[in-house]
Every structure is written in C-alpha cells, then in structure tokens.
Automatic annotation (TrEMBL):
Protein name as annotated: AAA+ ATPase domain-containing protein
Cellular component terms per the entry's GO annotation: Ctf18 RFC-like complex; DNA replication factor C complex; Elg1 RFC-like complex; Rad17 RFC-like complex
Compositional bias of kind Acidic residues: 1-10
Region (Disordered): 1-20
Keywords: ATP-binding, DNA replication, Nucleotide-binding, Nucleus
Domain AAA+ ATPase: 75-215
Annotated CDD domains: AAA, HLD_clamp_RFC
Amino acid sequence: MSDIENEMDVDAPAPSKDITFSSEATKGKRTTANLPVEAEDSLPWVEKYRPTTLDDVSGHQDILATINKFVDTNRLPHLLLYGPPGTGKTSTILALARRIYGAANMRQMVLELNASDDRGIDVVREQIKTFASTKQIFSLGGPAAKGGSSTAGYKLIILDEADAMTNTAQMALRRIMEKYTVNTRFCIIANYAHKLSPALLSRCTRFRFSPLKEGDIRVLVDKVVEEESVKIGSEAVDALVKLSKGDMRRALNVLQACHASSEFVPAPKQVAGSVIKLTVEYLGTPLRAKGAPKIPDSEIKRENITTETIYNCIAAPPPDAIKEIMSTLLKTSDVTSCLNTINSLKVSRGLALADIITALSEELVKLEVKPEVMITWLDGLAEIEHRVSGGGSEAIQTGAVVGVVRGGVELMN
Ligand SMILES: Nc1ncnc2c1ncn2[C@@H]1O[C@H](COP(=O)(O)OP(=O)(O)OP(=O)(O)O)[C@@H](O)[C@H]1O
Ligand SMILES: [Mg+2]
C-alpha cells in the first residue's frame, strides 16, 4: 500500500485541495510535482522516472493495448502479470489504477498488498474480504472521476509479489475471487507463475512481461541522460543497455551510480610553504560538512562515463579480458601455462570465476566447431557453474574450466 499512501500523504497538505478533488492537477506528477523539493532531489532515479501513465511504460505494446481495451469497454478481468524483475509490472498496474480511478480516488478504490505486508491466511480472511465485500455508496461520476473512467463500478485489489504468499492464503483466495467478482477485480503480480496455485492461475487473464528489448531500455536511458545531464558516450550507453539484460531498474540504478561516481572534485591546492604539492584531482562525491551549502548541480564538474566505468560498476568482466582468456585457452596447449595466465588475469583485473564462466560460454557458442566439441564445452561449463554456485573452490574450479575448454580443443584435432 506504500506507494499509494505516500502519494496521498504528500498530496493532501491543504484541506481545500481534497474537496476540489483536483485529480487532474496531481495526476501524472507523482514523483515530480507531488513530492517536497528535497525528496525529489534525493529520490533514486528508478522512482523519479517511474511511469505515471500507461503511455509512459516502454515496450510491452500488445499487453498495454489489450489492457487499454479492457478498460475502454469496461470489461476488466482478473489480471495476472508475471515476468522477471524490473520489467514494469508494478508500474503498469499502478498506472492502470490511476487511469481507471484518477489519482485522487485511488486510496478508496485500490487495496495494494505486497511482500512487505503480512499476507497469510488472516489477511486474506480479514483485510481482503472486508475490502472486497464493501461496495462504494457514491458513484464515482462527476469531478471526482476526472481523468479516470467514471463508469468503473469495481474496486481493485493488487497483490504484488504474490508468489511469496503462503499456499493456504492462495487457496483461500479462490473462493473470495469468485464471490466478489461483481464489485472487485484482482490483479496478481509475480515473478514466477509456477509458484502460484493452478486454481488461481485459471481465474486470471495472464500477461507475461518479457525482459525489455534493448531499444525500449534505450528510450528511457536516453531521456534520463538528457534530463539529468549525464556525461556519457554513446558506446557506454550501448554497453549499459546490453549489460542490463532487459531489466530497466538495473539500467537506471547503474546509470545513477556511475553518474554519482563521475563527480570531479578539485583537491585542495598546495598550501604555501608545504613540501608536498597537492595538485592531484580525485574522483567521487565528497562528503559535505553538515550545514555546508549544497553545490548546485550545474557547477559540479563531471568525468565522462566510459564503457569501462559501466563494466566496472556492473562488475561484468570486460570484453578484452574475456577475449584474452579465450584465445589463451584455444591456442595454448600447455595446460599449466593456461592456468597461470587465467589466474594472473583474475588477480590483475579482479574477475570472479562465475562471471568468467558466463561470459566464456556466451563467446564459445559463437564459434563454429564440431557438435561434440560444443557439447563438451557447454555441458562442462554448466557443471562447473553449478559447482561454483554450490560453494566449490575457486582455484580448483578454475582448473576445471581450463580442463573443459582444452578437452574440447583436443577433440577438434
Ligand atoms: N516498461 C518500463 N517502462 C518504463 N520504465 C520502466 C519499465 N519497467 C521498469 N521501469 C523502471 O524500473 C523501475 C521498476 O519497475 P517496476 O517496479 O514496475 O518493476 P517490476 O516489474 O514490478 O519488478 P519486480 O518484479 O522486481 O517487482 C520503475 O520505477 C521504472 O523506473
Ligand atoms: Mg514489482
């Protein structure tokens, strides 16, 4: 419920504003207009740029078109949105609720429960049932429904992260969903559909949010880069978009982290008579003394964010390091020297074996080799990855990687 409550708390400083139901004025300005100035300043970009209307959601065109049609014809079924993190499920449903009811009415008409709330059997029996079983007395027509469709005669119950609900609670939901369909719609959001009870699944219209396409992520990243005046080259944006693997939240968080660390601070220049000349400039946001005036953003000098910064921030192994490992493994027949090269690269570039395995398998599949060679590689790397994630020793498993790749190469000859 946090999202909605925050909004309402911030929304309603003056009572007069409540009475006029100026939903139009507040709608779509959840993070920018409604928050106090300081909050907006310190808000993480994922929240600052959370889509407020369905049109702001990037990608998922077919899903959005279908949902829009449901609302237009006033035939909203129970919904199930599922898919990997950071693809816009929560944002979509909040934007949908805002579209149906308008920002001012959301508090009365929407019950949002997520993993931070207790959602055991008691909550289903009490809270959800109470909310679902009460009808609103006044119709939402007139000024109150401005910006939302005035005919919506149902309330919305959003169960976010529903795969974390207990089994018994899911069971109890089944009957409640059926019984109160007249005046309520459920929207269930989950990462994994298989963790939900099949009976619950069959009561909902399912939409799978696939990982976002690179183009869709780029649209928002470009917008943020422009609005926050981030200094970043286009190859670095390419790398960021590619490395975020369809997760918009990750893309924005990494961008913000890189932006913060790109601050360029002149160190105190040399003190007269001092022996050491301090003319070095260093990177990083300086700690400000309490009460010291804030430096305006425009006056802060920033370094250009490079591809390397992005790789470092995500802690992905840089492509040139992987290339070097690949060519060593493919060309050097002496296993010990292979192992030494990889070990020294791991130390000098700070690489983790798990990341090397992922990157290596992505590169190896691109090669054209005999099927049995490819099978040896893929099967072997999968085994090693499993053992590493189970706590296998880095040193020994690094040896195993060398063994597997070299074993494949030997098969080639
Ligand atoms: N399709 C999208 N369009 C625009 N922004 C998006 C999109 N998807 C994600 N974002 C950005 O990522 C943030 C997180 O998105 P959201 O909370 O909707 O993800 P989610 O799918 O609910 O993830 P989770 O499964 O982890 O709850 C949003 O605040 C927004 O800034
Ligand atoms: Mg979510």
